[in-house]
Amino acid sequence: MPLPRYTLGLAYHSQNNDFKALRITRYRTLHSPVAEVYTLSTDSWRRVEIPIELLNETRSNGCFSYIISSPCVFFHGALHYIVESIVETSNVKFILAFDVNDEIFREIMLPQNLLNGVDSFDHLTVFKGSLALFACGQALDEWEEKYQISVIWVMREYGVVESWTKISGPMIWVERFIGRFCGFTNNGELLIETVDDLLMSFDPESLYKNDFGIPNILCEYWVSDSTWIDYTSNFVESLLLLDGTNV
Fold it and tell me: Which residues form a coiled coil (predicted)?
């Protein structure tokens, strides 16, 4: 029997000064995903309903009709995942948000035409205090040669679909050298892993780039060391020394 697939998220419950973990499980034998919430203060799990129509549809071959991204983004009191519906009749992407206070799932629609009609890899993140989406993909030029394009979308007013705004700016440097997008710092710099396996930051406004000097060595099964960045909520500068108290 095929193993189930899990999507996890950790959140802080501000109203009760508590922590919660969300686990979404997809079984091949069940058409709908199963969502469970763990509360730290009570040390208990309980199921919650996911009333999202697209997650209850099935494909003719019995496979999952959707893909839920992992890891997620915790922002504005909610956990956010990108969901891609892969039903034969349509291909829809949207944000699945789980409010940790009222424990209700909601849909947030993504901006239309994310990357000028190009199939994109999408990464949810936080940009200067707003929910944001980094999209990148490969397009074809007039000579049928592939080139990489990327764009940043920012939701200026949380939950208002009409407030999605495309950040325009010179992204050529990023598009040439990005191997993997990791997130943003608090001041709006992109954290990227280059094609040469270097961890760097890049300011899309000043064009300033900074090499952290951190070697990125591939681990077993070709998993990048920098995947830890995906599970870090915020990136801030620190005076903490890497080797402890030695100066």
Answer: none
Lowest mean pLDDT among 59-68, 89-98, 148-157: 59-68
Phi and psi, residue 106, nearest 5° = -140, 160
The pairing of strands 146-155 and 178-184 is unpaired
Q: In what helix (H) or strand (E) does residue 5 lie, and over which residues does it extend? A: strand 5-13
> In the block, which residue shows the tokens 């001041």?
187
Q: What is the pTM of this model?
A: 0.76
Q: What token pair was written down for 20?
A: 């919660």
The token duo for 63 is: 């496979």
Render pLDDT for 84-122 as a digit per residue (tens, 0 to 9): 776 656 677 889 999 999 999 998 998 887 776 667 778
Give the span between the Cα atoms of 203 and 212, in whole angstroms: 14
Residue 3 gets which letter from DSSP?
Answer: P
Query: How many residues in total does the chain contain?
Result: 247
